[in-house]
């Protein structure tokens, strides 16, 4: 479905950075010289006029590579400073984050979670890594220890939410249609419908996709990437953005290791090349092996969320 | 398709700003997609045309700048250019650094009439 998402291109080749400010150039010399240049005037309302000046002279006496001021005035007869020569076009400086709307939603969610002492975990992985199986096992094993809820993201069906609800845990399915990730506003709406128990554990199971979910802050407390032993060890290098934003890597399906050539050490090495501080926990959601570490990680996170809430309430 | 969602975000930012300035039409949109951001510029270009249809930004030229990844090395404490998340510091070879730029997604400026 998602032909343009990361899968679509060879990735970002470096091109020149032309975002530097006006009139920054490096030159080392001590002489008078002439030059022509292009520069900008910025009005009080952020309007920008960029224009060229033909060859003119002024003295320089300075070392190399630096910004320099323009100690001279340029008259602009006959046109407004924010207008082009023909008076019809003008430049507007914006410098606004494209994800501003999502980020504002994420900030609101984060505030909501913090105020309620909720530990919100954004669970991400490729399709089939075992996120839902891990959740079902977790919610079954930890039942009654603390309140929990799940937001399930999938393009279609409520199969996963049904599996979660079968454990007795409240769950809400968010279908993204053709969308390949959850965004902050979807989470806000889901939380509104699901209700948020104070001092609870909230799992947000993202759409199975190692690319797009990495770009959308949901306001979660922690980001967890699940990677199973039936995948390639080189996925952290192939999908670096996902690992760059992760707090914890859960390696799932370790029960299958005897049957595979999967090298756990290499996976961890690759993952920590991308994110040096990445925590790693190895589990098998099927046999239960290693789940104690995972549960401890969750309980530590929840305890911290509760502590922060108490501190903030005082 | 998150590039479509992002393109809609771009069009929203652009049209809000242009309308506030009383513009009749947007001729050019300049955006920055950091080299280390999880976004494919070709896909943004592709989606922008569709997302801008019927808006002030329809037909606008989309100019994409690619600020390179910038990181502070944890070993030598210098700010260096980083070509990828798996690349070490080009000055000292240390693999641990903290990203300080090059993952941005911004509308920088517009040319309107």
Would you report the number of β strands of chain B?
Answer: 6
Q: Could you estimate the helical fraction of the residues of chain B in percent?
A: 25-40%
What is the topology, as strand order, of the major beta sheet of chain A? Answer: 8-7-9-6-10-11-12
Largest sheet features of chain A: 7 strands, parallel
CATH architecture identity of the domain at 2-68 and 102-112 in chain B: 2-Layer Sandwich
Return Rg of chain A in Å: 27 Å
**What is the name of the CATH class of the domain at 2-68 and 102-112 in chain B?**
Alpha Beta
Rg of chain B (CA only): 17 Å
Strand order of the largest sheet of chain B: 2-1-6
CATH superfamily of the largest domain in chain A: P-loop containing nucleotide triphosphate hydrolases
Your description of this structure?
The complex is a heterodimer of chains A (314) and B (113). Chain A is an alpha/beta fold. Chain A folds into two domains: 40-92, no CATH class; 100-313, 3-Layer(aba) Sandwich (Rossmann fold), CATH 3.40.50. Helix content of chain A is 28%, strand content 24%. Chain A is built from eight helices and twelve strands. Chain A has helices at 100-116, 131-141, 159-165, 184-194, 235-238, 240-244, 264-274, 291-313, and strands at residues 24-25, 32-42, 47-59, 66-67, 90-97, 119-125, 148-154, 171-175, 201-205, 222-228, 248-252, 279-282. In chain A, the strands form three sheets. Chain A has a seven-stranded parallel sheet with strand order 8-7-9-6-10-11-12, sandwiched between helices. In chain A, strands 2-3-5 form a three-stranded antiparallel sheet, with no helix packed on it. Chain A has a two-stranded antiparallel ribbon with strand order 1-4. In chain A, α7 (264-274) links the parallel β11 (248-252) and β12 (279-282). In chain A, α1 (100-116) packs across α8 (291-313). Chain A is globular and about 75 Å long. Residues 1-38, 40-44, 46-68 and 73-81 of chain A have low confidence and may be disordered. With 113 residues, chain B is of the alpha+beta class. Chain B has a domain at 2-68 and 102-112: 2-Layer Sandwich (hypothetical protein PF0899 fold), CATH 3.30.2320.50. Chain B contains two helices and six strands; from the N terminus they run αβαβββββ. Chain B has helices at 2-20, 41-52; strands spanning 26-33, 61-65, 69-73, 79-82, 97-101, 105-112. In chain B, the strands form two sheets. Chain B has a three-stranded mixed sheet with strand order 2-1-6, with helices on one face. A three-stranded antiparallel sheet of chain B has the order 4-3-5, with no helix packed on it.
């Amino acid at each position: 479905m998602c032909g343009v998402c990361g899968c679509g291109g060879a990735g970002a080749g470096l091109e020149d950075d032309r975002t530097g400010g006006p009139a920054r150039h490096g030159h080392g010399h001590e002489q008078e010289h002439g030059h022509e240049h292009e520069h900008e005037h910025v009005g009080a309302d952020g309007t920008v006029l960029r224009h060229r000046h033909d060859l003119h002279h002024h003295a320089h006496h300075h070392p190399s590579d630096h910004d320099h001021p323009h100690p001279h005035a340029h008259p602009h007869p006959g046109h407004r400073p924010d207008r082009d020569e023909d008076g019809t076009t003008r430049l507007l400086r914006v410098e606004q984050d494209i994800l501003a709307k999502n980020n504002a939603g994420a900030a609101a969610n984060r505030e909501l979670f913090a105020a309620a002492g909720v530990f919100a975990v954004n669970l991400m992985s490729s399709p089939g890594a075992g996120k839902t199986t891990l959740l079902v096992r977790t919610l079954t094993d930890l039942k009654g220890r603390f309140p929990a809820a799940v937001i399930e993201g999938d393009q279609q069906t409520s199969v996963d939410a049904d599996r979660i609800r079968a454990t007795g845990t409240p769950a809400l399915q968010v279908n993204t249609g053709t969308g390949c990730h959850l965004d902050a506003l979807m989470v806000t709406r889901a939380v509104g419908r699901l209700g948020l128990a104070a001092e609870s554990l909230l799992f947000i199971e993202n759409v199975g996709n190692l690319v797009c979910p990495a770009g959308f802050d949901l306001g979660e407390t922690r980001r967890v990437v699940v990677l199973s032993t039936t995948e390639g060890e080189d996925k952290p290098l192939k999908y670096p953005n996902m690992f760059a934003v992760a707090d914890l890597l859960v390696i799932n399906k370790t029960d299958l290791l005897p049957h595979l050539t999967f090298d756990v050490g290499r996976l961890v090495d690759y993952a920590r090349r991308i994110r040096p501080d990445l925590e790693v926990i190895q589990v098998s959601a099927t046999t239960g092996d290693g789940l104690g570490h995972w549960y401890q990680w969750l309980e530590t996170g929840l305890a911290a969320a509760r502590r922060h809430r108490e501190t903030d309430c005082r | 398709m998150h590039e479509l969602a992002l393109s809609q975000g771009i069009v929203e930012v652009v049209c809000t700003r242009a309308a506030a300035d009383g513009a009749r039409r947007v001729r050019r949109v300049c955006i920055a997609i950091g080299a280390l951001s999880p976004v494919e510029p070709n896909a943004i270009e592709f989606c922008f045309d569709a997302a801008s249809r019927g808006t002030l930004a329809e037909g606008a030229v989309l100019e994409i700048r690619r600020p390179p990844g910038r990181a502070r090395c944890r070993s030598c404490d210098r700010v260096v250019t980083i070509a990828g998340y798996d690349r070490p510091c080009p000055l000292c070879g240390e693999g641990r650094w903290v990203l300080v730029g090059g993952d941005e997604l911004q509308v920088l400026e517009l040319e309107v009439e």
